[in-house]
Design brief:
SH3 type barrels, BirA Bifunctional Protein, domain 2, about 25% strand, alpha+beta, 7-stranded mixed beta sheet, 5-stranded antiparallel beta sheet
């Protein structure tokens, strides 16, 4: 595969001409974090749909302050600027919407079974292939969705500490992927689901699809929240997007945040 980044970036730009998400794509060979750049652009008045794309990140962001390892020439690292006209309490639901959109986009791009691990990871055979991080200032009228996808990263080149828990499209299919094609499928699905979300909110359709794609639905899980652990069966989501977990006594608890792991 030609690793000249400008070729695939221009291909992606052409594919997104005239669309909402990706109508403008700012590309950098390396940034600290695409989310940081996108938030700065938002504060300067950048329009909705702006995509900040990088070939590498020096300080890629994961959840809870973790680092998202971001080597050059292999993967997708981008952030999407959104200015949704919805109530502030609905903003958090955009992460769930993005999870469905990205799972659908990767399924289309790679013909692989992609599962969602609540709240914002995407898995193949139980290993992480992508992550979503939402940040921003809803009170200032914007939210940034940061998305990282392991596209052409061989397992042998990953840091030792993540080789057992991470994967890539390349590792799963045994061949390299066009980053422009994968990016186009992701942005197309994000735009479709985002526009539906603006009209429908967290609709029964979206909720049902999330539960179909979820790796944990009707599975026994452990959730770490505020330094405590809770165990039970993950029933699905409620109408406000909280995860419902039923313990062994039949009591149901709502979770809006936490770290979830499957019990076997």
């Amino acid at each position: 595969m030609n690793r000249n980044p400008l070729n695939w970036v221009e291909e992606l730009r052409r594919a997104r001409q005239g669309k909402l998400i990706g109508r403008e794509i700012l590309f950098f060979e390396q940034v600290d974090s695409t989310n940081t750049v996108a938030q700065a652009q938002a504060l300067q008045g950048a329009p909705e749909g702006l995509v900040v794309l990088a070939d590498a990140q020096s300080q890629g962001k994961g959840r809870r302050g973790r680092n998202w390892v971001s080597p050059p020439g292999l993967n997708l690292y981008f952030s999407v600027l959104l200015r949704p006209a919805v109530a502030q309490e609905k903003i958090a639901l955009l992460t769930l919407m993005a999870g469905v959109a990205c799972a659908e986009g990767l399924r289309r791009a790679a013909d692989l079974e992609i599962k969602i691990k609540w709240p914002n990871d995407l898995l193949i055979r139980g290993k992480k292939v992508a992550g979503i991080l939402s940040e921003g200032e809803p009170t200032q009228g914007f939210i940034v969705l940061g998305i990282g996808v392991n596209v052409n990263w061989p397992i042998a080149e990953m840091p030792q500490e993540i080789r057992e828990t991470a994967t890539s499209l390349y590792a799963e299919k045994g061949g390299k992927f066009s980053r422009a094609m994968v990016g186009q499928e992701l942005l197309a699905e994000l735009e479709k689901e985002y526009l539906l979300f603006l009209g429908e909110g967290f609709s029964p359709r979206l909720r049902a699809r999330w539960e179909e794609l979820a790796a944990i639905t009707q599975r026994w899980v452990t959730i770490k929240f505020l330094d405590k652990e809770y165990e039970g069966k993950a029933l699905g989501l409620d109408e406000e997007g909280a995860l419902l977990v039923q313990n062994g006594q039949g009591n149901v608890r709502r979770f809006i945040a936490g770290e979830v792991s499957l019990r076997f």
